[in-house]
User: Fold these one by one.
Assistant:
Number 1:
Amino acid sequence: MLRFGARLIAQLSAGQVVCLTGDLGAGKTTLVRGMIQSLLGPIDVPSPTYTLVQTYEGPEFELWHCDVYRLEKPEDGYELGLIEAFEDALCLIEWPDKIEPLIPEDALHINIAFEGEGRKLTMTGFKGIT
Ligand SMILES: Nc1ncnc2c1ncn2[C@@H]1O[C@H](COP(=O)(O)OP(=O)(O)OP(=O)(O)O)[C@@H](O)[C@H]1O
Ligand SMILES: [Mg+2]
């Protein structure tokens, strides 16, 4: 998962939104950790379960790691500054269904499913296409 994150982030840049879905404990935060640590070294990448957003200063752009599970309604995403971040930063979002109406059409969707002791990842380029 960490190695895949490192390969994935090399393909991404500012203004892109990556939505991470999958059950509790599927590995969404682990994948983000792989992405961020490959850019910034072995720093702490905590789950933003309570803070909702953790930002990181990348070499070229800001990274936003969001876990919006606790957001009560999608509109609360405006207060978090998500709309601006979708434009300017690379945003990695856990539980994107909570803010579904705010998610850009061209977001990358990655679903993580349990498969035996491992995980199966399904990537979708656009909404509705599998
Ligand atoms: N590919 C994998 N194979 C086996 N275990 C994994 C894999 N990816 C992550 N894990 C393990 O699964 C556990 C949960 O991972 P993680 O916290 O990343 O899940 P999450 O999807 O972010 O959960 P939450 O829904 O609570 O935010 C961790 O112990 C992690 O090490
Ligand atoms: Mg998580």
Number 2:
Amino acid sequence: MTPLLTVTGASKRYGAVEALRDVDITVDAGEVVALAGDNGAGKSTLIKAISGVAPADEATIAFEGREVHIRSPHDASDLGIAVVYQDLALCDNLDVVANLYLGTEAREGGLRFMDEIAMEGKASELLHSLSVRLPSVRAEVGTLSGGQRQSVAISRALLGEPKLVVLDEPTAALGVSQTAQVLELVKRLRSRGLGVLIVSHNLADVFEVADRIVVLRLGRNAGEFPGDPARHADVVGAITGATVAVAG
Ligand SMILES: Nc1ncnc2c1ncn2[C@@H]1O[C@H](COP(=O)(O)OP(=O)(O)OP(=O)(O)O)[C@@H](O)[C@H]1O
Ligand SMILES: [Mg+2]
């Protein structure tokens, strides 16, 4: 099977710092890949290269088997790559419907012409299909829990009908039950056939959702593992530099 996303030989320098050196990663459709690694390992740098926020100095990227050039976030979203950033970029003083449709005027597809009632209907339908439970789609986002907010942000990314969803630390600020809620949502993205690339520091979360774990260390590939909790020690070893392994 051709992977949904293939990145080969990604390198990026910030002055004297080699943030990425010859990094490879693939994500299949219907697969959750976790990107793990210590602080400064290059995770965000790789995500920024894939999302077009800060292209790599060198990288060959193929999407659905075709070589592509991602030079801007617009290029990424045109391909069907949606990114949910850690800071979420939600507006607390607007309700859920308004937040879901924030920025859609910049998108193709005629959503900008939808009226309020149609938007509310489509918002409810989307959230329902993802089993996201909220007090009301008319609730101000500022009144929601962290997990609910993260769910709104992820749902918003789905309005553009992406094929790959990239999540940067989606559970970092969340409590136990909120984290579970967001991880359930990630699993639903997978069951819809989307590819998911998730950055996380939390290995419990990683083993909960990931089909495959790609470890970076000091800007390089440091191992790849199946998302099997029995491999926990191996993953820790790769993150800290005690071992280098290949998925088995
Ligand atoms: N804009 C930048 N300018 C200079 N150096 C940078 C910049 N962005 C990242 N770096 C450096 O590149 C390296 C990789 O950083 P990156 O943010 O990708 O790590 P990370 O794995 O996301 O870490 P964390 O887990 O702390 O978020 C680090 O040494 C960092 O200091
Ligand atoms: Mg980072």
Number 3:
Amino acid sequence: MSRLDSFIRRLTAQRDILNHISETMMDGLEAGPILEIGLGNGRTYSHLREHFPGHRIIAFDRAIGSHASSTPEPGDLVIGEIRETAQAYVSAGAALVHADIGTGYPDKDAVTLTWLPQLAAASLRSGGVAVSGLPLEHPDLAPQPLPASVREGRYFIYRKR
Ligand SMILES: C[S@@+](CC[C@H](N)C(=O)[O-])C[C@H]1O[C@@H](n2cnc3c(N)ncnc32)[C@H](O)[C@@H]1O
């Protein structure tokens, strides 16, 4: 598969999953912020704002690279290495954590996976939802079914036990 096709499928999966979650998985999760792990260009942040109104969205990245229209207010933007900066949010009681920080390099992603699952689990409130492009293996995160349009293994959904 070309990298273009792979990119399109990743973003389609991301959008379909976030829509699915907003429509079917947010009952009881009206309170609690959303953590956007990897703001990037801010396209996903823009989608989160539209589909999860009423939630504070806190976005993380090592540098600002987002479009001006999709850049959070300074109080909701955390710049630096997420492994370190997000420690301040481990008790945030997040309703939703979305992480799009896979690189396609197995060695780099393996390093990320030494800390990302624990961070996601600790940041979520009970019943909160984690969505990730990398698998999050953690005893507190129960894997959830994907929408029919998303191939198994392309993207991952979990609910905190
Ligand atoms: C694939 S992009 C995210 C794209 C985003 N979903 C969008 O809508 O544009 C991943 C982003 O995460 C950031 N990132 C990845 N790993 C990071 C880390 N360990 N600490 C800080 N930022 C990180 C990168 O700088 C990059 O901007």
Number 4:
Amino acid sequence: MATVRTAAVIGGGIAGPVVASALRKAGVEATVYESHPTRSDGAGGTLALAPNGLAALEIVGAAEAVEAAAQPISRQAMAVGDSKHFALPGLPDVGPLRIVHRSDLYRALHDRAAAHGVRTEYGKRLVDARESGDAVTALFEDGTSATADVLIGADGVHSAVRRLIDPAAPGPRFTGMLGFEGLADFEPPVDRETMTFAFGKRAYYLYWREATGGTRWGANLPHRPLSLTEARRTPNEEWMATLRTTYGEDTPGGELVRRTDPAGLQVVGALHMMPPVPHWHRGRMVLVGDAVHAPSNSSGQGASLAIESAIQLARCLRDFDRVREAYAAYERLRRPRVERIAAMAAKTNRAKAPGPVAQKIMPLLMPLFIKAAMNPEKTIGPAQRYRIDWDAPATADRARA
Ligand SMILES: Cc1cc2nc3c(=O)[nH]c(=O)nc-3n(C[C@H](O)[C@H](O)[C@H](O)COP(=O)(O)OP(=O)(O)OC[C@H]3O[C@@H](n4cnc5c(N)ncnc54)[C@H](O)[C@@H]3O)c2cc1C
């Protein structure tokens, strides 16, 4: 049993409330410090939780609430141009993807954390941290501080904790694309449980029919780097005009962007992925979620991996006597898996935003890409079949790591 009694969790997105809930389950008192002033701030758009993410949420008792708020997607299809449309084989015995609005997911996770006895403090932006022998103190922008046995950086892709652990740590890499999401007042002839990944004439997009009517779509627009603030400075009408030019000739992409009210457009901004992070922990500080392994949205696994890592970190802190050993075991358990999934997503990114050379050979590459997608045990099996045995001691995982 570890000597850890208290934890300061920095960031109340997805990994934050999950690691705090799992720590409470392990007997550690955890407090979440979130920079946003309120809990639903900025939580627009939707995301797809994979079966492995849902299974990990079961451990902290949050799966049911998330499922209740989500729409199931049990079939996937791929479209290349207007003529080629393929049903992608799925895994026969795993559940569907669950599409959930970010704000509903955050609410479910925070409600669950509160039920576990986790306290969340808003308006607390971490700016620095100090370690003494057996404690670590988080310093916040508002001049306050919090001291705990361990400090967990669940503060997302632009993590401040990552820089505190290693000032030379790499930052997120731009994938070459901006993200947008919209809801079209139009329904293409596909069934309600199918998500289609479409490689249009100029850019990639995906879509599925909403349970409540209309079709929700996400666009990955090849673009120069643009911060979220810069992207949101451009009026939605202007972005919609760009999207109509880009997708206008695609079926059904053209119809989807023409039939979307610009007022409801979600401008997500630059899409990022994290390169491998050399140092996951230092002293009493450690990273979890996008702060250490954002695999890019192409994986469809960012949130699910963040949830898994949160559970595994809590499990290691529960079972190892020393913090250093717990962190090392956690990294051994998680690094190979998250880096493998990130590398696969990076390949998909290259197909979505091909450079000039790749664009020329894309017609040759696409059949190979499709052939790979036809083998789901290889492409999605390892990601989606992963399950965590919470009750098994993490010390026993050492032999397998
Ligand atoms: C367009 C897009 C689509 C996506 N689609 C999917 C999908 O379909 N499926 C999927 O699994 N994943 C998807 N993802 C990825 C997913 O959103 C992330 O992997 C997930 O949000 C990571 O959770 P996290 O808790 O690590 O980080 P975040 O959700 O980013 O949470 C970090 C939190 O830390 C807070 N914070 C930041 N800095 C500080 C600080 N200094 N002090 C205190 N608090 C701080 C932030 O305000 C935030 O609340 C998508 C991402 C994008 C951009």
